[in-house]
Automatic annotation (TrEMBL):
PANTHER family: GEPHYRIN, MOLYBDOPTERIN BIOSYNTHESIS PROTEIN. It catalyses: adenylyl-molybdopterin + molybdate = Mo-molybdopterin + AMP + H(+). This is Molybdopterin molybdenumtransferase. It comes from Tritonibacter scottomollicae. It is an enzyme of class 2 (transferase).
Length: 419
């Protein structure tokens, strides 16, 4: 079974007329409005389903538990017992998990029963082994004991026909337990979103190569390719592209054929060598998003042959922040997993900072001793700070005067799906 969603419209990144600096939330709301799933579906075995996005609701084929059973090792009989001493004759045989007792347990008698065993006919209550004395012929114990004690009802966890996992869910190991327990051996999942990653810049060389004067190693591509894999996407490595319009044009053509989304880094602003923004503008489907965000600008969003392009800033710090804040939720929608707003936590600041109004800021941060500490420099060329950090502190759009101990919003990298 394959499901092919409709193509995205060419103007899906169009910004309202006359808008200059777009607040982060408005930009996110726009993406959320305009994007939708672009991937087809396939049926896979449970063993293949981890991390995949459910393309339809998963429905229990069988109840859990399927039959009433015992939650403990002990002795089973019918009905409650009042306070005081009780003695019951034991019948021959036993009920164990996977080896049910076929006969009927007569009223007023008991049977040996082991955890997970289906309750035999005539048993609705179980006394815990540790609370019983026995000589093999009879059991003795003290009440009170409620009817149904130490047993599990059929379907008390899940009933056959219940939706166990909703469409759009990203399958976890626990989901595999639930699906398996309720009789499913396969799940219908979306094909992974294919994300092409392109680095642009004449100055870039490949790690391992000799780097000459003025050259730097490509830091964005290894980061973005790895990040796409952590997001559960299929990363398509398009390599490094020189600052040459025609080379970039054919790289974008190629990427649009091979991927559902294109992530470029570098060349997204309005300079002479900023060919990503120029090409997208020429294609008539370019929007330069002047987002009120630090670090972040410029972010170029456009469509290339019907394929969305996120033109990330070249700066690795800005490239990562833009990917986590903008590209990830947008790509989550395209992957069929819905819009994933990262979960942040209000924690005491371990720093002081004065911030001007007008743009949202993300600081490289980590939690130590119950406080958020921030990297010593806000310089966006400081790649070491990305690696030092374990998350981002998000400062609101307005002005802020933060003193140590004031609450700030900390978003762990893990909340962005980054390990
Ligand atoms: P750009 O956006 O192309 O003007 O690049 C902004 C800054 O980021 C420049 O200093 C670039 O050299 C640097 N840069 C661009 N791409 C990369 C990359 N893939 N790895 C490391 N630095 C980069
Ligand atoms: Mg460049």
């Amino acid at each position: 079974m394959t499901l092919t969603p409709p193509p995205l419209s060419n103007d899906c990144f169009a910004l309202p007329q006359g808008v200059d600096w777009t607040p982060v939330d408005d930009a996110l709301a726009l993406l959320r409005d305009r994007l939708g799933p672009v991937t087809g579906a396939e049926r896979v075995a449970l063993a293949e389903a981890l991390g995949r996005v459910l393309a339809e609701d998963a429905v229990a084929l069988r109840s859990n538990p399927p039959q009433p059973n015992t939650a403990v090792d002990g002795y089973g009989f019918a009905g409650e017992r009042a306070e005081g001493a009780h003695m019951l004759p034991l019948i021959a045989g036993r009920a164990a998990a996977g080896v049910p007792f076929d006969g009927v347990v007569p009223e007023g008698q008991a049977i040996r029963i082991l955890t997970g065993a289906a309750l035999p006919e005539g048993v609705d209550t179980v006394i815990l082994e540790e609370d019983v004395r026995t000589d093999g012929e009879q059991i003795a114990f003290n009440g009170p004991l409620k009817q149904g004690a130490n047993t599990r009802k059929a379907g008390e966890d899940v009933a056959a026909g219940d939706v166990i996992l909703p469409m759009g869910r990203v399958v976890t190991p626990a989901d595999l337990a639930l699906a398996s327990a309720t009789g499913l051996s396969q799940l219908v999942v979306r094909k992974p979103l294919r994300v092409a990653v392109v680095s642009t810049g004449d100055e870039l060389v490949e790690p391992g190569q000799q780097a000459g004067l003025g050259q730097i190693y490509d830091a964005n591509r290894p980061m973005l390719l790895a990040l796409m894999r952590q997001f559960g996407f299929e990363a398509v490595d398009m390599g490094r592209i020189a600052d040459d319009r025609e080379t970039l044009r054919s790289a974008l053509d190629d990427a649009a054929l091979r991927a559902d989304v294109i992530l470029t880094s570098g060349g997204a602003s309005a300079g002479d060598e900023d060919h990503v923004s120029t090409l997208l503008r020429d294609a008539g489907a370019m929007q330069e998003w002047r987002i009120a965000l630090k670090p972040g600008r410029p972010l170029a969003l456009g469509m290339w042959d019907g394929t969305p392009v996120f033109g990330l800033p070249g700066n690795p710090v800005a490239a990562l922040v833009c990917t986590l804040v903008f590209a990830r939720p947008a790509m989550g929608l395209m992957a069929g997993a819905g819009w994933a707003a990262p979960q942040g936590f209000d924690v005491p600041a371990g720093f002081a900072k004065r911030k001007k109004p007008g743009r949202r800021e993300y600081l490289r941060a980590r939690m130590r001793d119950g406080q958020a500490e921030v990297f010593k420099s806000e310089g966006s060329g400081r790649i070491s700070g990305l690696s030092w950090a374990e998350g981002l502190v998000e400062l609101p759009d307005g002005a802020a005067e933060i003193a140590p101990g004031d609450p700030v919003r900390f978003i762990p990298y893990a909340s962005f799906g980054m390990g």
